[in-house]
Amino acid sequence: MSASVQSIISTGFSGMVVDIECHLSNNLPNIIIVGFANKSVDEAKERLRGAFANSNVLMPRKRVTINLAPADIPKTDSSFDLAIAAAILVASRQIPVTFGKNQTFVGELGLDGSTRAVRGIIGKILVGRQHGIDTFYIPSANLAQAQLVPNVTLVPVDTLADLYKHCNQTATIKSVATGSGSYDAPADSADSLTALSEVVGQQQAKRALTIAAAGGHNIFFAGPPGTGKSMLAKALPSLLPALSREEILEVTHLHSLASHDYDKIITRRPFRAPHHSASHVAIIGGGLQLRPGEISLSHRGVLFFDELPEFGRATLEALRQPLEDLTISVARAKDTAEYPADFILVATANPCPCGYYGTTGTCRCLPHQILRYQQKLSGPILDRIDLYSSVHEVNHRKLLTQAIDPQADQSVRATVARARRLQHRRYGQASKLNAAMTNADIKKFGQLTSDAQELLNSAAERLNISARAYMRCVKVARTIADLEGSAEITSAHISEALAYRSTAAVTPSA
Q1: Following DSSP, what letter does each residue of 245-264 receive, concatenated?
Q2: Which of 162, 220, 335, 410 is the most buried (most CB within 10 A)?
Q3: Which residues pair with 20 in a beta bridge?
Q4: Who wins on pLDDT, 158 or 375?
């Protein structure tokens, strides 16, 4: 007696369909699982025995052989339990149904027969839908997340006993058709975030932050300690529009792969601020099961590197690919995974290790210490950052007198949203911004006036900027023009973009 049902395994950001084959033979009662299964899959044997016994469902007193095909792909997922149980029930003819190629099972079983939420349910459903699967038997705890995926039918299973009764038509489980996808709107708002008006002074830095929010540009703040660099970074999420439904689906899936709360729906743009002591793998991604790191967990949000020169050289150089391609490839000996990494990088740095070089404070650093500190940032990394802004010391008399201005914050958010809508109409994509313009896009949508082009060319020769920096100046100028509602890029827009191009604040001469 044999039977086969389908399940799905996660492989990086994607996944693949796995056939769960069950064969019963007359031999000593035992459960054998083959097909390149790791320990968490092999331990399903004990979970199944407990689940069958506590659900009053008969475990066949035969030799039960389970094959996970294709057998040459490593299986490292505990979500096969429900599929294996269904295959055993079909093979032993305890349920009078067979499951077609348009149905699949995903879920982990507890010893009491209950189902448990699994990691990466969204990715599994998306992969199944690509292969023509439209009905998914999943744990009830994963239902809220799974409903984000449109055009599928979900059968939420609470216990193995419920599945047994459902298949025998003694008690039906109510299925859920997702339609266009659904989710509960977030209860919180930008009011709970750091407001831009909380930062005292720093008008130039605030303007640069507004440009970064409008066009998705990477930004670097340089200045002495305690001047508001971190507050500026934390204020950026309050300027960004809410996640769209497609972005919520994408971000939730990424966080489900890495987080312990893998049944949680992410409705707010991520703000990730790893400490410089974090390991290379924690930031880039990887590990034994190739999970996403901080770079990918900040996708569609903000990645904040406070004190950028303090991070390891290998970690900083690994930023090259995501800053250019908006993806990160994690390659290991056994496998390779690619994760999306479309974020706004906010980096900060002090002028020197003690932070007071070139300020009114007393610098205690030796010249070679200052030089070594500044040389940690390579030219290719600095070249990939669009905006540079100095953050200056604040007049102490203003610290307690400047009030928070909600109307001013709302005005900035409205301006940013208006500029982003212009970009969405221009590119025909809801998630594409000026920072992601290709060279073809720049030539098509740049629309520089003759004076602006002449100013940019002469400045590029005088400042000796690279071809990449040249194009990034155009992208920033395009965003400045969008903030003003201008169809053309004028010399004033180019002039402001060039003002934010100088890296003198980052690498002052020692």
Answers
A1: HHHHHHHHHHHHHH-S-TT-
A2: 220
A3: 5, 68
A4: 158
- In angstroms, rounded to a whole number, what is the distance separating the alpha carbons of residues 402 and 158? 55
Rounded to the nearest 10 degrees, the angle between the axes of helix 491-499 and helix 450-463 is: 30
Which pair of structure tokens corresponds to residue 344?
Answer: 């706004």
Would the CA dihedral through 87, 92, 93, 95 be positive or negative?
Answer: negative
> CB under 8 Å to 7, separation ≥6 — which residues?
17, 18, 20, 79, 80, 82, 83, 104, 105, 106
How many domains would you assign to the chain?
A: 2
Same domain, 79 and 153: yes
Q: Please report the DSSP string for 45-74 in residue order.
A: HHHHHHHHHHTT-PPPSSEEEEEEESTTS-
**Coil vs helix vs strand at 385:** coil
Range of the domain at 95: 2-177
Alpha-helical segments (H) within 268-378: 280-284, 294-297, 313-317, 320-325, 367-374
In the chain, how long is the greatest CA-to-CA distance?
A: 87
How many Å apart are CA 317 and CA 119, to the nearest integer?
A: 30
- pTM, two decimal places: 0.89
Any domain includes 265: yes
Measured CA angle at 472 (ends 469, 478), to 5 deg = 150
Beta bridge partners of 109: 115
Residue 106 or 465, more confident = 106
The rounded radius of gyration (Å) of the Cα atoms in the chain is 27
Residue 314 covered by a domain: yes
Query: Is residue 318 included in any domain, yes or no?
Result: yes
Of 146, 144, 145, the C-alpha closest to 136 is 146
Query: Is 509 a domain residue?
Result: no
Buried b (16+ CB within 10 A) or exposed e, 33-60: bebebeeebeebbebbebbbebbebebb
Cβ(284)–Cβ(295) below 8 Å: yes
Measured CA to CA, the distance from residue 487 to residue 422 in angstroms comes to 10
Q: Are 150 and 285 in contact (CB under 8 A)?
A: no
Task: Give the CATH number, domain containing residue 368.
Answer: 3.40.50.300
- One domain, residues 104 and 198: no
C-alpha 408/C-alpha 162 separation (Å) is: 55
**How many angstroms separate the CA atoms of 196 and 93, rounded?**
65
pLDDT tens-digit profile of 250-298?
Answer: 999 999 998 787 888 999 999 999 999 999 999 999 887 788 999 999 9
Q: Are residue 126 and residue 254 in the same domain, yes or no?
A: no
Using CB atoms within 10 Å of the CB of residue 296, give its burial: 0 to 12 exposed, 13 to 18 middle, 19+ buried.
Answer: buried
Chain centroid to Cα 216, Å, comes to 15
| Structure-token pair, residue 240 | 């960004």
**Over the chain, what is the mean pLDDT?**
90
